[in-house]
Amino acid sequence: MSKLTEGLSKEEIKLLRGLSIRSWVCHLTWSYTRVHGTAVGWSMYRFISWLYPNPEDKEKKIAALDRQSKEYFCMTPQINTLPISIFAAMEKEAAEHEDFDASSITAVKASIQGPLSGIGDSFFWITWRTIITGLCIPFVQAASPVGFLLWAFLINAPVFVLRHYLTFIGYKAGTSFISKIFDSGMLEVITKAASIIGLIMIGGMIASTVSVPVNLTFNLSGSEVVVSDIFNSIIPGFLELGLALLIIKLIKKKVNIMLIIACIFVLSIAGAAIGLF
Hints:
Layout: H1 10-22, H2 37-51, H3 58-69, H4 81-96, H5 103-141, H6 146-184, H7 187-209, E1 217-220, E2 223-226, H8 227-234, H9 238-252, H10 257-273
């Protein structure tokens, strides 16, 4: 038994390998509302089923699957087995300890995706891809198939190895780390900190991706006043924040997501046609 799997049962090793393989479908389940969230639940399905094998545990099993599949999660695909295996370790703790705060899993999920994706995106989509492309361009310019084949191999080969190792590293590190903080009483503090970081990340995402470009102006004592500037002088991104809060409220009221998206499309097109945007 290697150090990578040391201390794990044969069943755990088998399930973690399956988790790693199933996690490859993250882009097949992509959606605007959850991004890779559904894929997390799919990746962990067999693991969670192993945690709750008895019929009387069905409600706990469904709660765990809902927690993992119905929440927003966006992660660099090449390293997504690291956070998923950490979530698996936390789900194991939740299954084994009745007083484990399951909301801490959601808090960690919200806080971990931003920093890890920043590292993963910077390395794989910018640094590694640029280096490999630079090495293969001369072959492509020479009309040699070696260029494409070499590029495809070098881009993907490290990912196969990395995803496998990160699965066990994340699970073992998560298990030992969570056990320590659970016993020391630090879980509540870390959960609160993770929730704050998660809210900051969501706020930053709204500010950088949501735009309400209102072009309305009016004359005030001979001066042209831009309506959007009035709102931004109160709080920068005021209209964007208001739109995000409105959508969150509609979602909480069980309004269909596709209906909300369709309404935004219609209002955007209509607003652009009349010069509002």
